[in-house]
Amino acid sequence: MADLRFTNHALERMFKRNISPKECEEVFQQGRTIEAYPDDEPFPSELRFGQVGDKMIHLVVAFGENAVHVITAYEPNPALWDEGFTKRKK
């Protein structure tokens, strides 16, 4: 498994949104990539989607040299995402 490191921003948002580091690890390991951002700086990043229990979670991670950095995590808003929470509504 990759070494997940949580940014301060991610930890603050996760606390406010009641998302645990364990839930983020599960989404990273068992979820799937729904958007990729290969040109992001300083590291390429992606948006992953997974379900933990009844909770749907989007996880933004960046792939650093020695670790995967969790940038943020949130429960997707149904008004902005399709019913599977994998494609943005237009």
The side-by-side strand order for the widest beta sheet comes to 1-5-4-3-2
Mean pLDDT: 94
N to C succession of SSEs:
EHHEEEE
Distance between the termini: 35 Å
Amount of beta strand: 35-45%
How many β strands by DSSP?
Answer: 5
The largest sheet, given as strand count, sense and whether it forms a barrel, is: 5 strands, mixed
Shape: globular
**Helix fraction bin:** 10-25%
| Low-pLDDT residue intervals, each spanning 5 or more residues | none
From the alpha-carbon coordinates, what is the Rg to the nearest angstrom?
Answer: 12 Å
Number of domains: 1
Count the DSSP helices.
2
> What is the quaternary state of this protein?
single chain
Class based on secondary structure composition and strand pairing: alpha+beta
Describe the 3D structure.
This protein is of the alpha+beta class and 90 residues long. The protein has one domain (4-74). 22% of the residues lie in helices and 37% in strands. It has 2 helices and 5 strands, in the order βααββββ. The chain has helices at 8-17, 21-30, and strands at residues 4-6, 32-37, 45-52, 55-63, 68-74. It has a 5-stranded mixed beta sheet. Strand 4 (55-63) and strand 5 (68-74) form a beta hairpin. The longest helix is centred in the N-terminal third of the chain and has 10 residues, at 8-17. The protein is globular. It starts with a strand and ends in a 16-residue tail after the last strand.
Question: What attributes does this structure have?
Answer:
single chain; 90 residues; alpha+beta; 2 helices; five-stranded mixed β-sheet
